[in-house]
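Annual report, structural modelling task.

Input specification for the magnesium ion complex:
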Amino acid sequence: MIEVQGLTRTYGTFTAVDNISFSCVPGTVTGFLGPNGAGKTTTMRVMVGLTPASSGKVTIGGHLYKDIPNPGRHVGVLLDASAQHAGRTGREILELGATTMGLPSSRVDEMLELVSLTPTEAKRRLRNYSLGMKQRLGIAHALLGDPSVLILDEPANGLDPAGIRWMRGLLKGYAERGGTVLLSSHLLHEVEQIADEMILIGNGKIVAQGDKKTLLAGAAAKGGGVHSYATALDNAALAAALTAKGITVAGAGDGLRIEAESVEVGRAALEAGVVLTDLRGGEGGLEDLFLELTAETQREAIS
Amino acid sequence: MSAIHTLDVSGTAKTPFHRLVRVELRKSYDTRAGFWLLLSIALIVLAAEIIVLAVTTVQDEAIAFGDFIGVAAFLTSFLLPVLGIMVLTTEWSQRSAMVTFSLEPRRPLVIAAKALVGVLLTLATVAIAIGIGAVCTLLYRLIEGHADWTFGWPDMFAFLLTQVLAMLGGFALAALLLNTPAAIVAFFVYKWVLPPLFFAGAALMGWFDSLRPWIDFQSSQEAIWDWSSSGEDWAQLVVSGIVWLVIPLAIGIRRVLRAEVK
Ligand SMILES: Nc1ncnc2c1ncn2[C@@H]1O[C@H](COP(=O)(O)OP(=O)(O)OP(=O)(O)O)[C@@H](O)[C@H]1O
Ligand SMILES: [Mg+2]
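The model returned the following structure:
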């Protein structure tokens, strides 16, 4: 649905987005991940024609964005929730959007309700909105035209934990009904729970892409290694049983860090008759991969 | 690419221009800043006319309907350009252009809608000014027992056209600069600083004296009020209009079309 083909955007001698290509498929949520300044926002801005591409192009459902008639009815866009007149009320902002798209004002009420902004809050001016309220309004604006494609730049920015969970459900349901969702973030754990596909970008280049499994397999192949964490009533016995199987074990906090999949640990515990109180797969594999892949572009050195 | 990956847009109509105009019109008054600008234009005209009425009746001076209009025209000739500026620059200073242009990527249409809103508000201002002028003339008649209703269609037309041109002057500078304070300063330089410079230049240099009518948009607008019969006067209006309206607008629009909207 969204096709990015050889997209490059330069500012003077600086290349913000460097020859990237990827596509987003209907029925899926695609997570666009990368550290600060990686080029996520720039890519999304090119998608909707706010920034011209230096070379390459983006099509949405086979069209250039500027060729889509009444684009708000097809593509929902949230790039910057505070890019609105601070003196307008939340409701008025949605009313203007609805009028432009040719929608009745009942649609505004539906959207306000959907994002849980109360009628009193909707009457407040945007300058008096909290970060999360602005974000909710931005999401409402993106959904106004009931689009089939959503392009959201850091939609979870400023949302409280309940709000983040709500948004996750919303976007998942949206994709399940056949919608195409592209959302950006720099928080891996935020994206991995909803994204079917992930695109990792660093320094304007795509460093890895695929679903979570593919990425993890890639991480394992790179030597990142699969690992898990376990805590048992008798840690020493568990460690001995695992070591006997030739598995590397190290102490980690109250429990153990084991260089094997959690299923192996469970089996060893069963055979050794040790009671496990906690067993987790090493989700850190993806986190490590993300940090490693984007290492050169990271501002902080990774310890 | 499979069919499922294409977006069927055949059933969607392009956003009609009248809808863009309606939205832009609403944007001109739905914020406190916009609302007060419009209201102040009306209130300033009203206050000035009341003062003129009070002074003339107290001093038993003669005043015509057309004089009241003249007072209004003098005031609106610098209030309306500020309106023309605000209509355009607010989108940039408030960054809402990002949303406006993602909902309507055909940017020239958005700018045209804004210009039309400026013209509509100018027409409304002119109508209100004429209304206030008529009421004042009527009051003058009640107090003084007589009134002079001299104000013909040519005057009405000249009033309207000069006000539209004034508003568009502000709009053009706004398109060029895309920044409210810069455009307002530029407008006041054009309005107050340039005429004396033109005057001095013409007095000192003979060649400039003959060039001046062709580049002085403000003085060439006299042709409209005088309903001049000289073709040269109108040619000067057109040429100076190109210098002060068409060129800045063209450069400004080109800039808006290419600009990265942040
Ligand atoms: N107009 C511009 N002129 C110069 N450099 C720019 C311009 N716009 C963006 N950049 C640069 O392009 C790079 C990519 O910026 P972008 O906003 O796309 O990053 P991002 O991935 O969205 O980061 P974040 O996660 O912090 O939002 C940055 O280094 C930024 O400074
Ligand atoms: Mg960004």
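Chain A has eleven helices and 13 strands.
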